[in-house]
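WP5 quarterly update. Target: Ig-like domain-containing protein. Source organism: Streptomyces yatensis. Length: 183 aa.
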Amino acid sequence: MLTGTFLGLGALALAATAVAPAANAAPVPVTGLNCDGDTYKCTANLRFGDGRWVAQWNVNVFHQSAASHQRAARSADAPRGAAAPVPVTTLSCDGDTYKCTAGLQFGDGRWVAQWNANVFHQAMASAVPAASAKTVKAPREAAAPVPVTALNCDGDTYKCTANLRFGDGGWVAQWDAGVFHQN
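Structure tokens (predicted):
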């Protein structure tokens, strides 16, 4: 019975590795980014294969007004008649709060999607264990949040990485994402 279980797990592992062709370089660039206030997910279109690959992650969607921000992130403030998902107009990440925030093209323009991200320097991440890389914070005199200069997602590690316009250019924000093909 154990042999059958291990063979079954081995077959699953082989099937999982066959999902995305290994010959293509990873991570791959993001060609479009949309967030949905109904499903509380952001979806990044990936420049990969037939163009129908996406990365998707959970987000909080809320209005930036003081009253809405103090309530729960999943409030009922969003007008339900709007089409979803909506395009992202701005994207920034904050090394103090460990959050990335996407401005949404919706309503009065003050709606945002926000999610948790690890923010670290790429050189320091290779020098210290991954668990402690999050503790290496940006210098306090720097302005936060900072703009994102590039966004890539990786179907092998199931992570999206945003390059940040900060310091020497080695700072990134990274978060887990589901990567799959749209049928």
